[in-house]
Amino acid sequence: MEQIHWVRHRWQQLVAAESGQGRYSAPDAVPTKSSPKLHNAQLTGKRRTVIARHGPYQHEYDSVSKGCQGNGIRTTKYSLLSFIPMNLFQQFHRVANLYFLFLVMLNWVPVVEAFQKEITMIPLVVVLIVIAIKDALEDYRRYYKSDKIANGRICEVYSKKQQTYVDQRWQDVRVGDFVRLSCNEIIPADMLLLYSSDLHGVCYIETANLDGETNLKQRQVVRDLPQGSELTPENFHSRIECENPNNDLSRFRGYMEHPSNARVGLHNDNLLLRSCTIRNTETIIGIVVYAGHETKAMKNNSGPRYKRSKLERRMNMDILWSVVLLVIMCLTAAIGHGLWLRNLEEASFLIPDTTSPALAGFYLFWTMIIVLQVLIPVSLYVSIEIVKLGQIFFIQNDVDFYNEYLDSRIQCRALNITEDLGQIQYVFSDKTGTLTENKMVFRRCTIAGVEYPHEENARRLEVYKQEEDEAMGRSHTLKSRASAKSLSCKSLSCNRSSVSLHTLTGHSEGEGEETPSPTLPRHSAFSSPMEKDVVPDPFLVQKLNCLSSPLFLLMDASMELTYIVDFFMALAICNTVVVSSPNQPRHVSRTPLKSLEDIKMLFQRFSLPRFSTLSPPHTTESTRSFTGRLFARGKPATFTPSEEDKIVQLNPGAWNELIYEAESPDEAALVHAARAYHCTLRGHSLERLLVELPGMGSLAVHLLHILPFDSTRKRMSVVVRHPLTKQVVVYTKGADSVIMDLAESPKGAEQSESRQGHIREQTQKHLDNYAREGLRTLCIAKRVQTSTEYEVWLKRHAFAETSIENREELLLESAQRLETNLTLLGATGIVDRLQEEVPETIEALQRAGVKVWVLTGDKQETAINIACACKLLRSTDHLLTANCGSKEACKALLLELRAEMECGEAAEGTSGFTLVVDGRTLEFALQEDLKGDFLELSRCCRAVICCRSTPLQKSQVVRLVQDQLQVMTLAIGDGANDVSMIQVADVGIGISGQEGMQAVMSSDFAISRFKHLRKLLLVHGHWCYTRLANMILYFFYKNVMYVNLLFWYQFFCGFSGSVMTNSWVLIFFNLLFTSVPPLLYGILDKDVSADTLIKLPELYKSGQNSKAYLTSTFWLTMLDAIYQSLVCFFVPYFAYAGSDADMLSFGSPINASSLLIILLHQVIESRTLTWLHALLLMGSALFYFSFTLVFSVVCVTCSPPNNPLGVDKLQMSQPLFYGVCALTTMLALLPRFLFQALHNSICPSDTVKAALMDKLNPDDYCKRMQRWNQTQAQSKTRSLVINVEDSDIKVPDPDFRLPSELKEGSATTGSLLS
Fold first, then answer.
1. Is residue 840 part of an annotated ligand binding site?
2. Which residue out of 430, 736, 918, 986 is catalytically annotated?
3. Coil, strand, or helix at residue 547?
4. What is its main location (predicted)?
5. Do residues 1128 and 1224 touch, judged by C-beta distance below 8 A?
């Protein structure tokens, strides 16, 4: 009998293949743009041909694979031979380095030479060496920790010479190679799956190394390839045509052409991506299509992100001003030198020269460029890089950013925009998974117009919430879920069995065989007790129990029971969930069929007109029971039903623990909800679904197609053959705004039409109520197709699947053609709670002057409710809603809302305005002629909520605000749909949450919770900006101050370009003596403590307004530097006037005084002084004096034509030297000190006030903090008149309910009442 069943099964497969499910030739009825040949011609140059490396087309392999890369990877920039030339080439891309290279070359010209040729090279050489060492260390670490390990891994590759699979290193794999992998091995390259040990050609992979998702993904063997025995490479005669390498992880297009010219479409489910791990499958074989840097994983490996910060752009402008100042000083010296020579003709001390004064002035101009070169801060760029690395180190090691549950900390992927964190003005946030937990828990549902509130389930969620809140107060240590994974390919046991339809194979292979050791259960995503343990509604359970009652045929049941069964059938199977089991071995037994006739009679009695007459049941029983056990190395436990339509009774003990590996928390929540009602998904394979329904046992459902979810359709569907009616049924779930439009009444059935109308009306009411409670809503629907309709659709769909060009568009059209005239079954309400401290974080950001926009795809009422719960909407806000159906209506409404806002502002009636826009209105508002009106309206609102927005709209909104308002923007999200706006924003932040790592990989910074944004911006952002801005100003100050000393000396040496110090001290002054203290200043300076910055978010506004680096601040710093240089030069000048001091003796106190002034200037400017500061400041001063003293003792001819021997030694032995240094330092710093003291005493800034509060004792600190907050609150409410109706307004809590007047589709404005 089993042989008959197998023949029947193969016959059905052949019939299906001929009807278009397998090999495909374009039917005449299908409209095509071109014939296949023309289609191929259009793809020339846009695709790749892959043939087997050791197959029958080996003679063509070299020519076909000529342009394909090997599988070796290199993420390093350099090799041993290329390091020096390539590193120098990259460093000289910097303008500053080119500038100093020009000066070095200029100093080699004899007529303009200012110093010894070697001395001029020192600054540039030091900078180049420091950067080169840093680059070399980073490159070596990247090679040692990444490339060497990856290229050296071993896999099994087919060898034609040895006629078997041999061990080979990853780097030796080539396109066209056949690779065999076992369970828990890592995939070495992008491969097309050709064989799987799974009987249904399924392979399970884990993509954690690629996108961070730990749930299993299912991949399938290319259609029509034999799976009975292992693939033989010599017999593989097919060619593969696919698209060229790209970085799209979710798309793969191509086809496989067999020798018979039949083509089979290839798609993403056939592709195994590099760095993923094989799970739950004993053996797979694939052919490499992309290798090395052409793999999708490497295409997405962009490494650290580099952006140019706002402060750096401002600094570059000031460097240009420094260049202008340098040119002015050099021109002044050149003109002065020419005039001086003209007035001193035939002077006895001049060497006779035929050079004219004008030409001499021209030469001197270039000499002065060399002398005053330090005015351009070449070391500033290096210092900024070091400071930012230090800032990132402290951010990454902040314990407050550590997440115990995920064992993760903050990631800083962009290394050069830390200061931008302190200047953010707009935050654009996703809702689901960003503001909320993204732990979807089934809350309630409506079926056939009847609402089931699930009150016990609501109480259960409250208990879980209380337990979690209590647990947060207890410290505990959790190991990383990822830490259990090893990179070893073969050292792991296959620790989880897939419970697909072929759940357990086999027979015992021998009594002496070892029993597999038990393995520990493994955690699965979206499977916490809160998510799994759904408490069913007793009224709904009572209705479902009718199915298992022996008297159900005698009961006066209604058609409602059919809706209920279909509803839970859809919840259980309309998904891509992978069913697995944590423990092994598992045994499954089958028992004979029973009561099938009763079940069919039920569906006959309650069927709608679309149900057809049921065929008589099969009465043949199989006496053979299927038992087996798991393979020792992890072979999947499988079970194959002998007939596709038989009902299978499973041993309940085998299914006591099922793990659902879902791709999204919504899917997992719905499957867990269905299981709570004993509608359990038992297995999921390529062609079969095993579903257990109450009173019916386990049904094997033939899976025909899966139409996955996409952001355009906003829904997903599965096409199955119903196990009882044998009809083709389409089950669809999706957004209510889409499904309600697609649900239509069946034609020619008045009773059914009125029923469907009633169901739609009641369901819509329930959906509105769910949205007001903040629940995520999904609608469930179905459609039954006739055989003719399905065959016509199947031909078109098969053509779309085998297309390479425009494949996405064709598949979208095919799906939309199927998902019409749906029968609405019901809807679900899923709760997604707020993350902890989200309201406090948003409130703090708003107090800091940051405008928060929420961009979400949820319903309007749901988004508004969440916004109220997280305090984005306040009780005193005036709510403006914009829902329009046309562009003209949108323009009129924007003007109307703008006028109403002006009236509200004039009447002083509200504390602020909040705008709510739906996706359709947003589409109109973003058009060129309306974006101005939309922006003018939204910029005046305190907050904006964009509902039903697509990923593209999110990025467009961010770019619009960023470009038009010229503000600093931050975008934060957790999913792939947030990637576009994260990349567009000035600062992109990804949340490593429940939806993988797509957002993290595209972000500049990655955090685990939204609450971390508060400290990241208010504390670290403030510190990074303030520190870096002050350090840059300090660099400009010290360079200008010292260079002016040389400039003033030109007035006393005939503008000859001479200097009053030896060239070594001149070069080392900025390069060594004063370079280290500013680094410490930029890394550790702290104007206000972290606790105060958190408690007083208003302090963040100083960074938004760039108060630390204003234009006026820059020029005041320059004037102060000029003043100090005048004091530093002329005090020694008058002190040594009339003495016999020579040029170097005169320059010695000037150099010493300038060093002390520059170091003590930093002491005045620093807000934090520790022993480390004192050590470095004193060390710099001692280093200078030690160097100059030793230099003057040992150096005889180190600085020709001058001779510094004994000069500094003599000066340092005289009291006058120290008196001049002390007087000069005091007079130079006195104005700066007095200005700081008077300014901080008379009109202190908020930052200064907060810094003073840090010095108070705890009691006084609390009193001062309360007084501060009261003052801020009074200043905000002084001009407010609260407009309320009926009752007082309080801050909304998580149980906030919207007024019943607010409906989706309205275009009203009014006060929001909580």
1. no
2. 430
3. helix
4. membrane
5. yes
